[in-house]
Amino acid sequence: MSDRMKKNFFKRLARRYVKGNISDKQKSLLEAYFDYGQSRDYNAPAEEDREGRILDRVNLLISSRENPPRSFIPYYWAAAALLVICMAALLTFKLGKSSPQPVSLLAVITKKGEKKKVVLPDGSVVIVNSESELHYSGNFDGPERKVDLVGEAYFDVVHDVRKPFIVHSKKMDIRVLGTLFNVRSYLGETTEASLIRGAIQIFLPASNKALVTLKPNEKFVLGSGVMLTPSKQLVSRGRDFIVTAPRPELASTPPRDIEWIHNRLSFDDQGFREVAVLLERWYNVTITIDNPNLLKYRFTGTFNDTGLIDILDALKTSQDFNYRKEGERINIY
């Protein structure tokens, strides 16, 4: 059967459908014709051709009403129902063409001795410290702006009361509307959050209730055996965590926790092992401490764009130890 004969045949069936004078077999054949363009189980032609076929079926139905029967009202609803079906098919086709594409996931990964700055889709700015990973979606279309962090990062978050910003790490989540804060969450180390401006809430995994709400200049430290450093005063203590604030005489000094974003390396009453880890990340070296007695040493200080050897020499003036440098390896004894 030629295309023209097929077209005339289905036109006649459509007219009989509107008049109500159609057999069940003919009705099934006509409905199968109308459903043809909606099927996705065949090798579909170009989208423009599919859209044209659906529009042709709508025009076919309208043309079938050029000579309406005397008993018009009962068949009007049949025609209207069929028209709705066709328009629904066209709408489905249109929506299918404009369906959103899967959102891409982005990552910022830094190596030892490296820092990176990134602007998120909402305009928030993040500085990612050495040996860290930040993962986030290519847009923030959902009810939350969520990022995943391993390592350390400094956040300057754009305020949006309708869409909270969530920082997810292995041991805690931070919820914020808009603020300035630092998160430290390296694997195998204490997890910390330091608030500079605004307010943030700390949640433990699988908990819907905030553990604490930090105020500006407060610091949250999660980990067993957490110690209070001399520069801090205790705000609150819980199971495996403490909240601290600077002592009054130090309240006006810049927080040591964010010195790194200004290329300043800072120690706040930290043990030799902690200091060694910081130096490894900062200068991309490997440090071994051969004498376990040296691990009891603690250091406080800030170094502004200083070389590794100069820092080691400065630390030697406060504690008794020696070191040997072989390429990218440092042995402390």
UniProtKB/TrEMBL annotation:
Gene3D superfamilies from the UniProt entry: 2.60.120.1440, 3.55.50.30
Highest rank taxon of the organism: Bacteria
Residues in Protein FecR C-terminal domain copies: 264-332
InterPro entries to which the protein is assigned, alphabetical: FecR (IPR006860), FecR_C (IPR032508), Ferrdict_sens_TM (IPR012373)
Regions crossing the membrane: 75-93
Keyword hit for Heme: no
FecR protein domain boundaries: 108-200
Record PANTHER family: PERIPLASMIC SIGNAL SENSOR AND SIGMA FACTOR ACTIVATOR FECR-RELATED (PTHR30273), PROTEIN FECR (PTHR30273:SF2)
Name assigned to this protein: FecR protein domain-containing protein
Lineage: Bacteria, Pseudomonadati, Bacteroidota, Sphingobacteriia, Sphingobacteriales
